[in-house]
Every structure is written in structure tokens, then in C-alpha cells.
Fold this sequence. Notes:
The complex is a heterodimer of chains A (495) and B (359). Chain A has 495 residues and is α/β, with parallel strands linked by helices. Chain A folds into 2 domains: 8-241, 3-Layer(aba) Sandwich (Rossmann fold); 259-494, P-loop containing nucleotide triphosphate hydrolases (Rossmann fold), CATH 3.40.50.300. In chain A, 33% of the residues lie in helices and 25% in strands. Chain A is built from 16 helices and 20 strands. Chain A has helices at 46-53, 76-81, 99-104, 118-131, 147-159, 177-192, 207-210, 233-241, 295-302, 325-330, 350-359, 370-383, 400-413, 430-447, 458-464, 487-494; strands at residues 8-17, 20-30, 35-40, 61-66, 69-70, 84-87, 165-169, 196-200, 213-218, 221-227, 259-268, 272-280, 284-288, 310-315, 318-320, 333-336, 418-422, 450-455, 467-472, 475-481. In chain A, the strands form 4 sheets. A 6-stranded mixed β-sheet of chain A has the order 6-7-8-3-9-10, sandwiched between helices. In chain A, strands 16-17-18-13-19-20 form a 6-stranded mixed β-sheet, sandwiched between helices. In chain A, strand 4 and strand 5 (69-70) form a beta hairpin. Chain B has one domain (43-354): ABC transporter involved in vitamin B12 uptake, BtuC, CATH 1.10.3470. In chain B, the strands form 2 sheets. In chain B, strands 1-2 form a two-stranded antiparallel ribbon. A two-stranded antiparallel ribbon of chain B has the order 3-4. In chain B, a hairpin with a 2-residue loop joins strand 3 (201-202) and strand 4. In chain B, helix 4 (59-84) crosses helix 10. Chain B is globular and about 70 Å long. In chain B, 48% of the residues are buried. The mean pLDDT of chain B is 86. The interface between A and B is large, with 42 and 34 residues.
Amino acid sequence: xxxxxxxxxxxxxxxxxxxxxxxxxxxxxxxxxxxxxxxxxxxxxxxxxxxxxxxxxxxxxxxxxxxxxxxxxxxxxxxxxxxxxxxxxxxxxxxxxxxxxxxxxxxxxxxxxxxxxxxxxxxxxxxxxxxxxxxxxxxxxxxxxxxxxxxxxxxxxxxxxxxxxxxxxxxxxxxxxxxxxxxxxxxxxxxxxxxxxxxxxxxxxxxxxxxxxxxxxxxxxxxxxxxxxxxxxxxxxxxxxxxxxxxxxxxxxxxxxxxxxxxxxxxxxxxxxxxxxxxxxxxxxxxxxxxxxxxxxxxxxxxxxxxxxxxxxxxxxxxxxxxxxxxxxxxxxxxxxxxxxxxxxxxxxxxxxxxxxxxxxxxxxxxxxxxxxxxxxxxxxxxxxxxxxxxxxxxxxxxxxxxxxxxxxxxxxxxxxxxxxxxxxxxxxxxxxxxxxxxxxxxxxxxxxxxxxxxxxxxxxxxxxxxxxxxxxxxxxxxxxxxxxxxxxxxxxxx
Amino acid sequence: xxxxxxxxxxxxxxxxxxxxxxxxxxxxxxxxxxxxxxxxxxxxxxxxxxxxxxxxxxxxxxxxxxxxxxxxxxxxxxxxxxxxxxxxxxxxxxxxxxxxxxxxxxxxxxxxxxxxxxxxxxxxxxxxxxxxxxxxxxxxxxxxxxxxxxxxxxxxxxxxxxxxxxxxxxxxxxxxxxxxxxxxxxxxxxxxxxxxxxxxxxxxxxxxxxxxxxxxxxxxxxxxxxxxxxxxxxxxxxxxxxxxxxxxxxxxxxxxxxxxxxxxxxxxxxxxxxxxxxxxxxxxxxxxxxxxxxxxxxxxxxxxxxxxxxxxxxxxxxxxxxxxxxxxxxxxxxxxxxxxxxxxxxxxxxxxxxxxxxx
Lengths: 495, 359
């Protein structure tokens, strides 16, 4: 562990939002050259703490000291001057600007007369990206990049500011294994230079790979801080959820019923080619693929969000035409989108968000039953233990795991018979993951819902799916029964 | 004080705070502060005017304010729907003028539409014709935005000009009815019911204000209790989420533009009654004022949040400012400056209040 005086000390930080005590007198410190991992379920207060440190939120009470000097009137600008750099979970890139412009944004190299030196902008951007070991065209518009490339650009942008304290909020959630390795190399190099890194993650297996110390938060409090040697996975999980998780992947094996969804020679050029499969009632069909293998297009095509160019879709043996999600919902289908934000209306409460698909099934001037709506919301808040349990609360204030439960509640409320879930655990914590899987299992085994589970997380798909189809470049390359496949086999079929 | 005591005091304090935060009274107070900003501003303004001029708080003046503001309120209700979807309708004034002009022409002379001669028609037919013009104008705006895939701002900026042009063609650039008209069967007066709409009272309150009230209530009902109203919020709150949830975004967009144009046509019709005539350039200020009313009323200009009741307050605010400045003998040039400043200040205050007390 690094020694000397702390680079950063946060003392008794307290923050209350209306109805929620987000941070309850939290203490946190960081030494030069260490990677301090911050763990906690969604809504535990990690992001709030980091936002206070980076100056975008103000604490109600408590002190922040950087190298022993108290920081007063913190603001994003001030935090940046103090050498605090934050890589946000939601990217803070300007999509219409080039990669180079984004990386140098706020500190554009200029000539003596104040004009921007464009050659220098791109040279500097290339240099920083080279240290990250990635090749991205610095003159490309940021919006044309893949999610992983955007994430790396975001990291490069913060590194360009040469921070002494670096905050990384789930930096690896969009990265491939090779990219993660490179990112860790860079973090180690920064460590050697005495930079302190605060690392927020949901991936417990990253803890021993990169961490020095681990702090676990729960419900706005610090549960404990451990050196990484003492932080084994089980200890961390029980600290995070406050109990031992009985089972991470609850799975009931049942005999599936008759096929409800049948897809024959389905094509959606140029993404999907000649796909045939069926989903049975009460079955979880896993679809595994690496990023961009076409699995999300498949979900969209089935749900009427993208056009079909060939083949047919049959429900209960009858061919159906699904030109629009309205029809998909009418036929008893549900879709959990890969990006939760694409499914939620952030400024509305739980009730309207849960009943939104039902609204689309009504006549234009059909009347809404507001009483039933709030009853529905109350029921699912209890059923799925959505927190905080306030049905009027705008969903943008919910944590990721709770937002995901709202999305699921939506399809429970419509009574969907076929549920397509696209990366249902992306960016949510262990506790919420177990709850989501528990729910999927319950739907399949007791209510005979046919579930299409699209995932790139191998442990979850191996544990939960009754059958796994592997997709590569828009074609199925393999099919495995439950318990038949291993991670190596999946990877081999997918790449 | 010992360390332990200090901690206890802090805990009691935070407990107290959370009890307070959940009590009914503070919730009411908070809601008033969060949602009632424009109401507070309006009350302050009225209090000031009452002390500054003896004429403000008199029945005849208040009736006058109501009459003047009613037309703006009707415009603002439709505009609220459009803004809630994240759009903007710059053509409402022009639509109102067009509908009024077409109705006025058909009510005062014989017209020849593709060889079919009819008119002058009566009040009911005139009103129906104005509504048809509204429906057509709204459909055009809606189709331009959805099928034409052009930004709302551009589409309605274009139709704003075009509608004025059509209105000018219809009226020949003259006020209608006009003594100079040589049209067949020309009359020099509008049906008496039209005049009554704009200038008569019922139970001491202008008929125009009753109409505005009905429009507001219908608008509020649609927003809160119908699938269309909910779709309006959803499309403005997150277009993608609305689509994924099966809501027909294009149909909703076309719907709000039609609603906006229908209320605009009605407003133009009422305005014609108040002016005792129609002309192609009327309601030119109501265009921007309707947008200002909606925004002052607390509806988010990016969509998803707000409602029609706020827009009434916004419209009243604009009406009262104008009236007050008249009573205070402020000349028109200064009036414009002051009006502009007040609108901006109200919204600045509103934004600050939301950040401070916002959820």
C-alpha cells in the first residue's frame, strides 16, 4: 500500500435529496499511487460521492481536503484546476466534434495571436491515444465511433488534462478484454507517477487485478474499507448486499411447453442473414454474441423497430406481420432494450412509465384509468421491491437497477408471453442482477413466458439459458443445450 | 459540547428535517414553490398595480383584461400541446388570421370555390369553415414535420409565411367586411353572433373568456385523462421510449399540430368578433406571445413537462403587464422593452427556483 500523507481526504460528507439520505457522513481517503476501488449496489451513493468530489454537486456538510488543504466552494472548474479528472459513466463528449477537438476541448493549443493550432490539436490527440495503445482516427466525428472507442476517447480526454486524482466510473463496461488490459496498463503507469485513482466498478473480478484498497458502500454509508488481499469475492458481495447471496443465478429446470415464437429464414439485410429458431413457452433461449454480432438488430426486428427483408415470423403457428412495436405489444411481446434510457421517460413517475405500452393499445381519445395506473405501480413497486418506493418519483432519479425493474414491470403489466431481454444486467449491481434473474426464472418456470435472453456475459447466459444460440456476423454458428457449453466453446463459436 | 452530544444533535436534526419534508404542509408549500412560481409572480404584479394605479382593480378594467387575454389563452392551449412534444408552432397567429379571414369573407359575400357559388353564409357555417381551415393547416404542419422530416421550427416558419400569403390573397389585403368591396352580394357587416363572441358578456364575464375557459378545461382533460395526452408527454419526454413502447410518434405529432391549429382557428374567430372585422395580418403578436405564455407557465421548452394551467397564468401575465403599463401611461416603445424584460426575468426566476427547490 502507498504511504505518506493522503492526496485526498473526504470527511463526514453528508447529502440529502428530497426523500433520500444519499450520503450519511461518509469518510473516504486516497493516497498517491494507489487504486482505491469503490464498490456498492446501484443507489449506494458512489456516484453522488464522486459528483461532490468533482464539483458538480454540493455537499450539505463535511469537508474535502486535497493534499491537506481544504477545498471550499467546489465547482467542476475548481476541481479540474485542483487536478481532479473524472471519467463519467455517461460520456461527456460532444458528438458533432472530432475526436481531436474533444480530447483538447477546454485547452486548445493556440498561437501567440490566439488562433487555434489545428495541427497541434490533432498531434496531441494522436499522442495521447497512442499512449492508450489504440488507433482511432482523430479527425473522425465522435458520433461515428463505436461505444468502446467513445469510452477510450473519453478516457484520453481526461488524461490530456494530466490529473493528480483520477475518477473512473465503470470505465470497462463497454470495453473488450484486450482494451481492458490496455486500460489497466495505463492505470499502473499512472500509479507509478503518483496519481491517485478512484475506480468504481460492478465487476468484482477486476478488484484483485487492479485495486490497492476497496471501500464498500451501502445505502449512503461506508460499510468498510479493506486492503485488496482481504477482499475476496464472497466477503465483498455480502458487504455490498448486507447478506449472503443464496444464489446468484436462480434457475429452475422445467420441461418447456409448445413453441410460441417461430422464426424461419429471417433476414434483415445487411445485418441478419437467414436465421431460423423457435422459442418455447417457459423456455429461456440464450443468444450469445460478441459486441455488434447482430443480436440487437434481431431484437429490434422481432419487435418491429427495424424492417424485415426476408423470411417470416410465426406466433403460435400463424405467420404475423410486425411493422411497428404497437403490433408486437398487441401480440403479447415485450422488449427490454439494451440501453435503459431508450425505454424510460425520465421526467415522468413510475406509474406512467410502467403503463406506457398499454397506452399505445388504446384509441387516441381513449380514457386512461389513473386509479388503476397508480395501483399497478404500487403493486410492482412492492412485488419487485423498487426503491425508493415512491410511485410519483421521476424515474430519472432512480438508480440503474431500479430503472431496470421499472422496465421489467412494464412487461409484467402487459402480461407479455414473449419477452426479449437485451443485456438485462448491463451496468447494474450484483444484488439487482440476482433479482432480475430471479424474476426471469419465475416468469419462465411459473408463467410459461418464452424468454429470449441476449447477453454477452458468459457466466449468466451459461447459467440461465435452457438453450444457447451463438451469433456471429448475423448468422447462427452454434447451438448448445443447458449445461453443454463452456465459456471456451462459446467464445470459439462467436469469434 | 461533547462529541457524542454533537452527533446526537445532528441526528435529531436530520430526523426532524425528514419529518418536515414528508409532512403534508411542507409538501404543499414545496409544490406551490415548485409549480406555483408564475402564480406568485402574477400575484405580486397585481398587488403592485393595485397600489400604483386606482384603475387596475376595478371591474371594468378586469373585464377588459379578461377580454384581451382570452384570445391569447386559446392560442396558448394548442401551443402547450405542441411544446410538450418538444416541438414549436410558429404559425398559430397566421393560422388564426387565415381562418378568421376565410370565415369573414364567406360570411360577408358570395364566394366561388371551383365553380361552386355560395354565401354569404351564416354564423354556424362560418365557424365550421374556420375550423376546417384550422384542421387543414394543422394537418399540413404535422405532415411537414413527420413525413417531410424537417425540424418543427423550420416547417412552421415556412407555413407562417405561406398562411399569411393565402390570407392576404383571400382578403385582397383589405379588412373584411370592407366598404370598398365590389364582390357579389357583399355585406358590410359580420353576423351579430360573431360580434357577440368578441364583445358581449354572460353573467358579467366576457363570452370570449367563457370560451377560453372551456378550451382550457378540454385541453387539461385531454392531457391528463386520454391516451393522446399521455402520448404527448411521452413523445416529448423521450421520443425513443415512446416508440419502443408502441406509441405512434408521427400520429401524436400530427395530432398536436392539428389541435394547435384548431385552437388557433377558434382564437382567430373570436378575435375577429372583438375587432369587428378580420384582416390577414391580425394576431401577429399572439404568435410569439403564445410561446411566451407557455414558457412562463412552466412548460419545458424541450418537452415532456408542463400543462395548460400554467399557460393561462403565462397569458394572464402578459395581458396584465400590457394593461398595467397602459394604465401607468407608459408609451408603447417602452412597453415593449419592459414586457420583454419581464418575460425573461420570470423565466430566470422560474429556473432558479426549480434548481433550488427542484426534485
